[in-house]
Amino acid sequence: MSDKKTFLLPDLGEGLPDATIVEWYVKVGDVIRLDDNLVSMETAKAMVDVPSPVSGKVLRLAGAAGDVIVTGAMLAEFEIDPSMPQRAEGQDTGHHHGPSHGVGSHAPSDGDKVVASDDGGAISAPTAAPAKREDAGTVVGAMQSSDAVRSEQAVAVGGVKAMPAVRAMARKLGVDIARVNASGADGVVTMDDVKRAAAGDPAALRAAGGASAPAAAAYAAPAQATSFQPQAAGIAPAVAARSTLSQSGKPMRTQPPGVAASGQPEQLKGVRRNMARVMADAHAKVVPTTLCDDADLHDWLGKQDITARLVRAIVVACKTVPALNAWFDGDALSRTMHPNVDIGIAVDTDDGLFVPALRNADMLDARGIREGINRLRAQVEARSLPASELSGYTISLSNFGMLAGRYATPVVVPPCVAIVGAGKLSHDVVAVIGGIEVHRRMPISLTFDHRACTGGEAARFLKALLDDMALPQ
């Protein structure tokens, strides 16, 4: 009688309740070896390759690309092959179904550091491993498995070698990855290749017939195709243009109010799914209050980095009124005020909202702030940001004015007690002694949890921020 193994989706880090299938590396009937990549999964914060827990034949797979799998639910079923390598009974795989580190969890020690090769090969781990490992959370491209660390590797699917994150970016940008010229080592399609192809760089694309036969077959076969995979260029079905006229040329009658609107419901996945949960939790727990005012930038000398000035002003306000640079535990009614200032910078993407942490903002000069923000944005765009960088900040900033809007009521996400919103710059007529002047001003909105600080503390915080923003430099 064959020995079967049911593999449950492990906790991929940060205690997230589910993950979305991006791409299977096997199909039912395939034989897979222990620790070979089984599936690429997208969590709210990372793209992760999940290795196989056994060697054997694949009997069942939980779903297709795009399906959401609950943590602890069946991911795959195997028929174990005893003639192939197997993991010893009770050996730690590095994945857990229990709680993982949350906000304020410690960073991996120096002994856990690993080094990856330039061409995306396996990551090597230290030979001396501690007897007991802790789940360090999800890190893009690296997962603990026994005493080794598995890496996100460039896997050849459909004749194209690319990492899962690169494939996901190609799907997002509507790029046929089979037509992208590979510039990476050993013919690997890189993130930069995909972005240049999306920008229309002719050197980044092969000729229409230049794709290899396996690649063309992979895009033609619908076996694993889902909503993640765009239609190949030129073969999308024609969509009739909407019109207010019927085919006879007469005006069409509009639908009465009782008729349901058209469109299909779309299940939230990945980052957007987690964002919905976080916002609902914040709405249920926080008692928000918002103060608004305008920062007068009239005295600024020369061209300055507006976001860097905002960060500096928030640091000054946090040092002036520490009550807003704090965490609040609503259950225990306890408050933790922080000596350091770690600012969560809201980054808007098509996939949803990311809030990476700019660590030790109170120790950075203007150049350090700008370099830190650029690094965080690049990591968010490439989906290479460690999960540890998406939590643990002490206060947050939403610079929504870069797009539109003057004032707002940004959402305070526990355990933080405050968030600063910066609106769109404007030129306003300002009354001064002896007449009027036109000043450049920035609307500022400060939302705070009224359980954790008073209105007076919030007002003094806002004043300190505005005063610093008004300085010439």
Describe this protein with a few key phrases.
single chain; 473 residues; Dihydrolipoamide Transferase; Chloramphenicol Acetyltransferase; 3 domains; seven-stranded mixed beta sheet; 7 helices; globular
| Residues in β-strands, percent | 15-25%
The total count of helices amounts to: 7
- Report, as a whole number of angstroms, the end-to-end distance: 77 Å
Number of strands: 24
The stretches of 5 or more residues where confidence is low (pLDDT under 50) are 92-152, 209-239
Using the coordinates shown, work out and report the CATH topology of the largest domain. Answer: Chloramphenicol Acetyltransferase
Instruction: Report the principal-axis shape.
Output: globular
Query: By CATH's scheme, which homologous superfamily of the largest domain applies?
Result: Chloramphenicol acetyltransferase-like domain
Strand pairing plus helix content: what structural class? alpha+beta
The tally of structural domains comes to 3
| Rounded Rg | 26 Å
Helix content: 10-25%
Could you tell me the mean pLDDT?
78
Label the CATH architecture of the largest domain.
2-Layer Sandwich
